[in-house]
Model the fold of this input.
Amino acid sequence: MQLTFQTLWQKIKQPFRQGISGTQIAKAIIVSLLVTVFPIFGVTTILLTFLAVKLKLNLPIMIVVSYVATPLQFLLFMPFIHLGETIFNAKHTLLTVLEIKNAFESSFFNTIKQLVFELVCGISGWLVLALPIALLSILFINKIDVSKNKTV
Done:
């Protein structure tokens, strides 16, 4: 019984120990924040899991940061859409629940098309703003880590 409990406990602790260096934790936090503010709801945990495995980052830390930072996704959703609409030089459409409801009553497929365009605008805004900030942050952390290792 003890050996089985020990083995189980080691398997539970394994994900928490992966990517535990300061640099890896910082990268996990940055990637988690980047994915958390992605303007499509419901895909965060799946994306975080994939990136954690692929980049060998600490998944439990990423999930905790994501859950704590989830309000940022709601706060940045509309600004990303507005930024994307500015990029595409498009007029602002279907931004309230009442407008969406009225649009569905008049034309279902046209409304779906407009909502997909809104998501494309949101993703474009995210790509233009959030992605470069995250990449620059990771490059900065790597530079600090390299310079710190050279002085040691």
